[in-house]
Amino acid sequence: MSAPATLFVNGRIFQSGVKPGTNAGLSHPPTFAECMLVRGTEIQHVGHASDEEVTTARAAGPDAVTVRDLEGKTILPGFVDGHMHLMLLGQALNKLDLSRCKTLDDIQTLIREYAAANPDAPRILCRSYMHSMVPGGAKASDLDGLDPQDRPILIDSKDLHTTWCNTAGIKDLQAESWADVPGGIIERDADGKLLGIFSEAANITYVWPYLASVATMQERTAAIKAAVAAYHEAGYTGMIDMAMDEGAWDALQALLAAEGSIPMRIAAYWLVKPLKTEAETVAQVDRAIELAARYNASTTPDCRVVGIKVICDGIIDACTAGLTEPYSHNEHLEVPLWTYEQLEPVVKRATQGGLQIALHAIGDATVTMVVDTLSKYADPERRPRVEHLELSSERDAVRLGENRITASIQPVHADPAILGAWPKLIGEHRCKRAFAYREFADNGAPLALGSDAPTAPHSPFGNAYVATTRRSFREPDVETTVNPHFALGVCESFAAGTEGAAYSCFDDHRIGVLKKGCKADFVIVDMAWEKERLKDAKMEETWYDGARVWSFSE
Ligand SMILES: [Zn+2]
């Protein structure tokens, strides 16, 4: 007897018509098939109501084939988030959300209420403060006294580049004993006293591992499950983790051992941090090579280590992105976190080990440095990639295409509602170069769309909305656009968020497209195929491996 089958009829089954590794272009229209037959874990047929496969399936009767009338709704491939942070997202889902606060007063009020409502939590963990909420600069004393038990209070900035904590938090972290790290910021007052603000490499080197080490295995596996559930609801069936470490990897293995499988295609890039010596830094690449030899597309295709990730600069809002010209408001010239000399041995070793390489570069100076390094030392066949690409030159856009470097972009970061400070920080003239997606695509760089969750909303429709309209998804009434001439097309955006992201990590032969022989990972959506209406798309169901894993009605 064959596996149970479902025949979807009367639908709009998305077909991008795009060749793997290429982009659709601004106005390329997709086509839509009417029917899709799913049997077991695979797509068995996509086509027309009159196709023989469809008529045969219908004739088999309801015991053999369930027929579903889609009533004109759309089926898209399950989305693959090209850049996200699984453990941080899962943990963030369980933290106090400060993103709606406007002032320090709002922050203090929320924390006071939360502390009172959660008397048993060992720490008060919060997320999503923005530097603009505390214009005078955040410090530990702002948080002291909010909790009668004086527990550690630790707050992630919305961009995840900074942690702000109270005095009890500084003690909990034992931050007094920390040495400065290259590219890290440990803020102190004039007397050298810690202010409770840890940014960039200091945050990554000290705070993240500490919080990961105090999280119990049960908390970590619960975080993964929460993130996977949230992603099913949003329409994802695949994710590319962009800062995998031992703690999160152990938790994934523990969860797999306990449950047999995790209903998500997970590809991980191992985070390589700048350590004291070159040998220590490169040893992290060796660890990734070792893991990739064990967990790869042939052995564990749904949970594998595919490469390394290096965070080569910070972000514009914190004035830590590496720029070719000084910041406009203070004439400070910020350089990338890594030098050419530091980056070269890491990229070389990863290339020797057959790993993929993902380099985070936000400012234009950093983009130039990473494109230089990748074009010199990375193997273009291994689909190297640059993450974010927020400010870039025309010349580097051309070089991305020439060197077949994936442009891994997060349109939700281009939301005009969060870019208010940019004209002051980098000047209007440089704002005109922001988020130049059109140039990347037209020059032939393969596109992969991602959300960078939990730093930004992870709705794939929000992502497509911003990419195509260049308007705000967070505040849809705001009519401001950000460089609309750099917009992507609708088909182009959906292709980049599905097959493009799958292509970026060599998974395009089995996911990201709706065709015969591919995995039955897809979503059913009530939507209109118009860019202005993408934000109103209504997710109805998510299917993974031929089974429904989320439904709006349940
Ligand atoms: Zn990220």
TrEMBL record:
InterPro entries: Amidohydro_3, Metal-dep_hydrolase_composite, Metal_Hydrolase, YtcJ-like. Transmembrane segments: none annotated. One of its GO terms (molecular function) is hydrolase activity, acting on carbon-nitrogen (but not peptide) bonds. SUPFAM superfamilies: Composite domain of metallo-dependent hydrolases, Metallo-dependent hydrolases. Residues 67-549 form the Amidohydrolase domain. It comes from the Eukaryota. This is Amidohydrolase.
